């Protein structure tokens, strides 16, 4: 048993003082009677109440008051774990749609494999909201939703050649993801969707050509966003395929001087991605040829979700103040109605 308001137990000093006062009263009464004469004779003359009845009344009064104090402390018993309503978490996936993601060091290509893995990831979500940011030199967004089929369809409909601005701007992607998680007007967010854990999953080959991704990561982290990063690509140079508008392959990308353009997840780029994850209190993973890194990301998000659920488990106790209230009330009533002496004893002494 426990008490919801244990500080109220200090009121037990009241029945304790009451007991002391009653005891002192009995002692002083006896001392006064001895001064008058023989105690037995004086008792008969005063028609003194029966001692045992008087003691019973005093005990009932003290214990009854103590019972009321215990009730005020709200005693509780037992304890069962109860799960509050599941809120889920908010995840925004920022996927790199720059042309370098067309490299085929991961089959069928970095981008297509990422789409496949993301579709599988999204289908595993339960009660979570997913938002999507497609980025190259600029961003395209799909708002937070629990309509997972619509989110998966968003990826299918776009490619690197659909992006309005070429290049790669990781900083812009992180900023766009942060604004999706924290709208400029907080009142626009429904009450039931507030307080969720926030996660950004950045998937890129790390070739950032503009912006300050570390500053964007700090801005998101300051608002409590966890950032996980999945780096895609090999550390050796890979050619970037080129396609016509109808999807027909047309050799490989070349620069203005006619040289082939290559892409690689260099040590320098990988270090930047690791710093982003570190700033965001998340983890960095490297996607190998079998994309095992994505599995590790999913496990990390599951851990966060489990932590979110565990935090919503509360222990519920049963209120048992009535165990003390009813006996206390009866004892107080008993102390009030109990006579000082039995009627036949009163008649005998008269």
Question: How would you summarize what this structure contains?
Answer:
This protein is of the alpha/beta class. It has 11 helices and 13 strands.
Explain this structure.
The protein has 350 residues and is α/β, with parallel strands linked by helices. It has 2 domains: 2-80 and 317-349, no CATH class; 89-311, Rossmann fold, CATH 3.40.50.410. The protein has helices at 13-36, 39-46, 51-72, 110-123, 148-156, 170-181, 213-221, 267-279, 292-310, 322-337, 343-349; strands at 2-3, 75-83, 89-96, 129-135, 139-145, 197-204, 226-232, 238-239, 241-243, 249-252, 262-263, 284-287, 313-319. The strands form 4 sheets. It has a 6-stranded mixed β-sheet with strand order 5-4-3-6-7-12, with helices on both faces. A 3-stranded antiparallel β-sheet has the order 1-2-13. α7 links the parallel β6 and β7 (226-232). α1 packs antiparallel against α3 (51-72), α3 (51-72) packs antiparallel against α10 (322-337) and α4 packs antiparallel against α5 (148-156). The longest helix has 24 residues, at 13-36.
Structural domains: how many: 2
Number of strands: 13
Strand content: 15-25%
Order of helices and strands: EHHHEEHEEHHEHEEEEEHEHEHH
What strand order characterises the main sheet?
Answer: 5-4-3-6-7-12
CATH architecture of the largest domain: 3-Layer(aba) Sandwich
Q: Which class of the largest domain in CATH terms?
A: Alpha Beta
Radius of gyration: 39 Å
């Amino acid at each position: 048993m426990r008490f919801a308001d244990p500080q109220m137990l200090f009121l037990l000093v009241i029945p304790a003082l009451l007991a002391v006062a009653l005891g002192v009263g009995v002692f002083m009464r006896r001392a006064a009677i001895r001064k008058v004469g023989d105690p037995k004779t004086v008792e008969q003359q005063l028609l003194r109440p029966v001692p045992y009845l008087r003691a019973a009344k005093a005990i009932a009064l003290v214990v009854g008051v103590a019972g009321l104090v215990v009730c005020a402390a709200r005693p509780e018993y037992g304890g069962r774990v109860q799960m509050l309503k599941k809120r889920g978490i908010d995840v925004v996936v920022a996927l790199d749609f720059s042309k370098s993601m067309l490299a085929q060091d991961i089959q069928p290509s970095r981008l297509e494999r990422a789409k496949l893995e993301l579709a599988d990831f999204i289908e595993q979500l339960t009660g979570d909201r997913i938002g999507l940011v497609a980025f190259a030199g600029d961003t395209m967004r799909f708002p937070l939703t629990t309509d997972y089929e619509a989110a998966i369809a968003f990826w299918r409909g776009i490619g690197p050649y659909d992006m309005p601005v070429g290049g790669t701007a990781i900083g812009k992607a992180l900023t766009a993801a942060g604004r999706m998680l924290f709208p400029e007007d907080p009142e626009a967010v429904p009450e039931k969707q507030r307080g969720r854990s926030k996660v950004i999953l950045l998937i890129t080959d790390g070739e950032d050509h503009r912006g300050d991704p570390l500053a964007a990561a700090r801005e998101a982290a300051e608002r409590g966003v966890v950032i996980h990063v999945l780096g895609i690509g090999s550390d050796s140079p890979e050619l970037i395929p080129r396609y016509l508008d109808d999807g027909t392959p047309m050799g490989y990308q070349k620069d203005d001087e006619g040289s082939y353009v290559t892409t690689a997840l260099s040590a320098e780029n990988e270090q930047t991605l690791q710093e982003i994850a570190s700033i965001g209190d998340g983890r960095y993973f490297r996607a190998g040829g079998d994309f095992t890194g994505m599995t590790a990301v999913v496990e990390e998000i599951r851990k966060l979700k489990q932590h979110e659920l565990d935090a919503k488990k509360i222990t519920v106790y049963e209120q048992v103040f009535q165990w003390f209230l009813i006996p206390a009330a009866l004892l107080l009533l008993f102390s009030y109605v109990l006579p000082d002496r039995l009627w036949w004893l009163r008649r005998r002494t008269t």
